[in-house]
Amino acid sequence: MRLWVISDLHLEVGRSFEFAVPTGADVIACAGDVTTRGVARGIQLLASRFGDQRVVFIAGNHDYWGAALQSGISDARQVAERYPSINFLENECMV
Fold it and tell me: How far apart are CA 18 and CA 42, in angstroms?
């Protein structure tokens, strides 16, 4: 299995994320800090950018910035259900 590991995108500061997924990557592993606008928003951004590509997302400390931890996790799980290609993990693992 080939992973493409990304992190610390911080898209809230106006950065564009236009990198192409490397040829042969089976899974994108996003190791947090997509945006300080919330975990749910990070999931939406990843889904809009990567479409049907499999993404495993583990939120970073900045993804939770300014949000209550438990409600942020709950909101993220609800949003992630809308995107079957996104796997949001919080104190979990997947095989």
Answer: 16
Gap between the Cα atoms of 76 and 70, Å rounded: 10
Can you tell me the distance from the alpha carbon of 52 to that of 63, in angstroms, rounded to the nearest whole number? 22
Please state, in angstroms and as integers, the Cα–Cα distance from residue 62 to each residue in 2, 4, 16, 45, 53, following that order: 27, 21, 18, 15, 24
Q: Which residues of the chain have pLDDT under 70?
A: 66-71
Q: What SS3 class is residue 38?
A: coil
Give me the pLDDT at residue 69, please: 60
CA-based torsion, 68, 70, 74, 76: positive or negative: positive
How far CA 9 is from CA of 1, 43, 92, in Å, comes to 23, 13, 22
Q: Rg (Cα) of the chain, in Å, rounded? A: 12
